[in-house]
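User: Run a structure prediction on this.
Assistant: Running it now.
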Amino acid sequence: MVTPGYSKKLKPEFLKAHPTLVVDTRHCDAGFTARLLEAMCDVDEQADGVLFHSENSQALSLMQQRYREQVDCIYIDPPYNTDASAIDYKNGYKTSSWMSLLNDRLLLSKAVMAADGVLIAAIDDEQQRELSFLLSDNFDGRVLGTICVRANPSGRPTQTGYSVSHEYMLFAGRGPQSVIGRMPATEDQAARFSQRDDDGAFEWLQEF
C-alpha cells in the first residue's frame, strides 16, 4: 500500500507504529475493500461515529430506519436566506420555498430523535420568526428557548443600512423529557455562590 506523501510501500513495522492511520478505500480495488470490511466484524460496534457525505435531506432519509429515535441532539445551520454574505449554496429563497425546505428536513430530523432529544437551529433576524413557527409546529409547541449569540463583533451590513452583530440559537424538544440547562458555573461564580439551601446555591449580600 502506498499513501500520499510516501514514495515507498509501507512496511508492517510502519503500520504497527501508526495504528490510527485512516484507509481511504477509494484508492483500493473492490476485493480489498470487501475483505477489509469482513475483517472488521461488527463495524457499528467499532465505529465511534458515522459520517454522511450527502445532501442533508438524502442523509436524513438514509438514517430513518437505522437511527430512528436514537439521536440525542441535532444541530442545524440552515440558509439564513439573505444574500448579504457569500456562501457556496443558495441563500435567497422566497419565504414560502424556504419554509417548505426547512419543514421537510425538520420532519425527518424529528423521526430520528430520542424521546428526550433536543434540536438546535442557528438563524438570524431574516427568518427567525418563520423558523420559530416551524419548530413550534413540528415539535408540538416545545420550543425550549432562544439564545442571542454575538457572532460578528464588527457587524454585518443589512439592506436597511444598519449592521447586526448577533444571530440566534433556537432550541426545540422532541418530547416532554427534553430539557436544556445552564452552563456549569465558573470558578468565580462557584466561589461567590458558596452557600446552599433547598432552593439551590446562593450568596450573601451586605446592604449599606
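The radius of gyration is 24 Å.
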